[in-house]
């Protein structure tokens, strides 16, 4: 190793071990992890595609910490999410596509462009509703600049299905393709339920799959018309199911039993008890 490389490595070690090194420290650690000669073999092998699932997972873990009100865990999870950005930007830098500073400057400029009432000449004497309309108008201009001509262009394929359905419906609603009220959506929900039952009775697996998807899509639309976030509502329903089933297991355990040894009627009675107790 040359003297210059030795000095560079020493400087890098100093930064990597500096507890107050902040973002430069994290960026250098990632660069070192991805070094093809001296880095971590697992980290060196990763690509945009292999890291993407971890990025999605970390975003959900941030949301989970917020839902639980666990602020110490939130700090940790935000760090994990930041690492995903650092990871992806390091790969981008290695390929000559972009680096962390490009990404940071890009989002900074976007915030300036979308808030002329704060950083520009526009008045900030506007309602939150007006700001939302202005925000959507600016995003539409940005999509046009990227040659996204279709109303639904740019809605990411990688979003969770419920979230993507909601975004697609909101886009369509902006141009008037929407039901007038929730009652119409409820009627459509009944129609789709009947079609699902018909597909089941016919034994048509492909049609059953299609009708089930249609039913879920209408449920998302119903939530939108009722002012509810379907992703959030389903997460809460999952949490409620988990609490109540844990009650069933705990009560059976007190009697020296487990769910496998209990009848459905017994578990249903315990479920109703959990429900009555507000679980």
UniProtKB/TrEMBL annotation:
It comes from Dinoroseobacter shibae (strain DSM 16493 / NCIMB 14021 / DFL 12). NCBIfam families: mazG, PRK09562.1. One of its GO terms (molecular function) is ATP diphosphatase activity. Residues 46-119, 184-247 form the NTP pyrophosphohydrolase MazG-like domain. It holds the Pfam family MazG. GO terms for biological process: dATP catabolic process; dGTP catabolic process; dTTP catabolic process; dUTP catabolic process; response to stress; TTP catabolic process; UTP catabolic process. Belongs to the nucleoside triphosphate pyrophosphohydrolase family. InterPro entries: MazG-like_dom, NTP-PPase_MazG-like_C, NTP-PPase_MazG-like_N, NTP_PyrPHydrolase_MazG. It comes from the Bacteria. It catalyses: ATP + H2O = AMP + diphosphate + H(+). Its EC number is 3.6.1.8. This is Nucleoside triphosphate pyrophosphohydrolase. PANTHER family: NUCLEOSIDE TRIPHOSPHATE PYROPHOSPHOHYDROLASE. Coiled coil: none annotated.
